[in-house]
Design a protein that fits this description.
The protein has one domain (2-153): P-loop containing nucleotide triphosphate hydrolases (Rossmann fold, 3-Layer(aba) Sandwich), CATH 3.40.50.300. It is 36% helix and 18% strand. It contains 6 helices and 5 strands, in the order H-E-H-H-H-H-E-H-E-E-E. The protein has a 3-stranded parallel beta sheet with strand order 1-2-3. A two-stranded antiparallel sheet has the order 4-5. It is globular, with a radius of gyration of 16 Å.
Length: 154
């Protein structure tokens, strides 16, 4: 029961765990190379605003990112984390400050793309301090000191 419940949730924290492997291996974490669905990798990378960056790399999705992603910026690491969560195809997606290292335009594009592609069949819970992170939300709940102080449907 708990295992199936866990499978239905993807969580993207502010700090992304990355392995010393390729971009594809980091998106499809815990899958053997022969099991990686590269069409899905490309699809989720496009939504996560990662695909343009990857296409500029000589080895594209086969580029090794180094231990903990040392060869990447914070925003690139976060976008890999978002792509990983989307690759899992969960029905609930929790973004916990998952776009904090992105510039406003990239974040806006990502959230719009995410909502356009997933909002009908996925519940997206976005936790953010930056209000611009929540522009695409259908419902806004503000919590202050552990209490709900605002609950609006947008």
């Amino acid at each position: 029961m708990i295992k199936s419940w866990r499978a239905s949730i993807s969580h993207v924290p502010q700090s992304i765990y990355l392995i010393d492997g390729t971009i594809a291996e980091n998106i499809a974490l815990a899958r053997a190379n022969k099991e990686i669905d590269y069409e899905l990798i490309e699809y989720v990378s496009t939504i996560a605003q990662l695909s343009n960056f990857v296409r500029e790399l000589p080895d594209q999705y086969q580029t090794n990112i180094g231990e903990r992603g040392v060869k990447l910026s914070g925003g690139q690491r976060q976008r890999i984390g978002i792509a990983r969560a989307l690759y899992k195809r969960s029905s609930i997606l929790i973004l916990d400050e998952a776009t904090s290292a992105l510039d406003n335009q990239t974040e806006s594009n990502l959230m719009k793309s995410l909502n356009d592609s997933y909002s009908n069949d996925t519940t997206i819970i976005s936790i953010a301090h930056r209000l611009t992170s929540l522009n695409q939300c259908k419902r806004f709940i503000k919590i202050d000191s552990g209490r709900i102080v605002e609950d609006n449907h947008v």
